[in-house]
Amino acid sequence: MKILYDYQAFSWQKFGGVSNCFVKLMTNLPKTTTFDIAIRETDNIHLLDENIDGIIPCKHPGNRFLTKSFFPGKYRIYKYFTKLFPTFTTDGVNELVAKEKLRKGDFDIFHPTFFDNYFLKYICKKPFVLTIHDMIPELVYETQRDPQIEAKRVLATKAAHIIAISNQTKKDIIKVLKVPENKISVVYHGAPTIPDNLDSFNFEFNYLLFVGGRRQPYKNFIPMLKSIASVLLKHKDLKLVCTGEKFNKDELQLIKFLKLEEKVTHYFCDDIGMMKLYKGAKAFIFPSLYEGFGIPILEAYATDCPLILNKKSCFPEIAGDAAVYFKLDNKNNDLNIILEDFLSWDTNKIDFLIKKQRERVKLFTWEKAAIDLNKVYQKVLNIK
Do 283 and 208 form a contact (C-beta atoms < 8 A)? Predict the structure, then answer.
């Protein structure tokens, strides 16, 4: 059995997220299943680390098109430019490679890594499997029409099978896209591999950790900050460390208004640095209102970082009883109370939570995920 993957997720992600998941799944597939990737050039760190023959560092990546910064409409402009000058952009080059491999037909199943439907004209009668990581555009961005929504709907209808990364996401797909339940399988993510000699940063203060990219509203950063402000001010040796993009104007104004200028800090780091942040934190706070899975849960588990988690979305499904839960939404707010209680815990109580986290993380491995994915491929091809 041979699976063909395409370039999409690797064009816009230099590291992390969806692209890392696909690399982990591909490289952990059983030996009886081979794979090919329709890519000639990329700057995706996870893919380049695999040293796959024929793939070279890219010259004009989409995430650096016009500017290194993200802005609304950047992807659509880049895709239009790609159509005009396909051999100039990375996406254009890789799309040509993908079309060539699709025409050749030397594969059993095609697995696109995002929702561009360019491949439908070239796939002929070969089946394709679609992964849907979340339904954020449909359920969160109520006032913003994301082009991904229609593309996802079309592909979900035509796919031979759909992969959801949690039962919550599966339920959302059924509800929003009206896909039959028997057409969807859940394949959980795996936990990251942590170096044996990983240490933590030698900060001169204790800190709570918030992990997020652009801190969109559904990430619930602002309500979290307001809720824990009194706790941070009460504990003189405690700070909040935030990752992702630098604070925007509104966030900086709120930090000043709450008198947290000396209590909240931004820190940017690579994957190893991120693991060090988890390892040294008193706790990781995950306040999101919605996630498809919540990879940071497994990152916290893998680094023995106590997890304080909003009881929303798929979080109870993934974390089970291996977390401290709070409620933070437009109706509830007990995070400050839960956090204050957690900070009073003795060593034995914290060790007991970490013990449960260590047991829970064993349920999530990339080896198991790849086996489950392979079963889906076999099902599509009616292989016993």
Answer: yes
Token digits for 70?
């993200």
Query: What's the CATH number where 219 sits?
Result: 3.40.50.2000
Total-model pTM:
0.88
Please, which residues have CB within 8 angstroms of residue 34's CB and are 6 or more apart in sequence?
1, 2, 3
H/E stretch holding 225 reads helix 221-234
- My answer on whether 56 and 131 are in the same domain is yes
Is 171 inside any structural domain? yes
Sign of CA dihedral 228, 229, 233, 237: positive
> In sequence order, what are the residues at sequence separation of 6 or more whose Cβ sits closer than 8 angstroms to the Cβ of residue 273?
201
Number of domains composing the chain: 2
What whole-number distance in Å separates Cα of residue 186 and Cα of residue 176? Answer: 17
199 domain-assigned: no
Domain co-membership, 119 together with 249: no
Strand (E) or helix (H) holding 295: helix 295-302
100 and 243 share one domain = no
Q: Which domain holds residue 323?
A: 206-361
Q: What is the per-residue pLDDT across 3-44, written as a single tens digit (0 to 9) for each?
A: 999 999 988 777 777 888 999 999 999 999 999 999 988 888
Q: Which two tokens stand for residue 172?
A: 């959302």
Element (H, E) at 136: helix 136-139
Q: CA-CA distances (angstroms) from residue 70 to 18, 62, 63, 75, 214?
A: 18, 10, 8, 9, 10
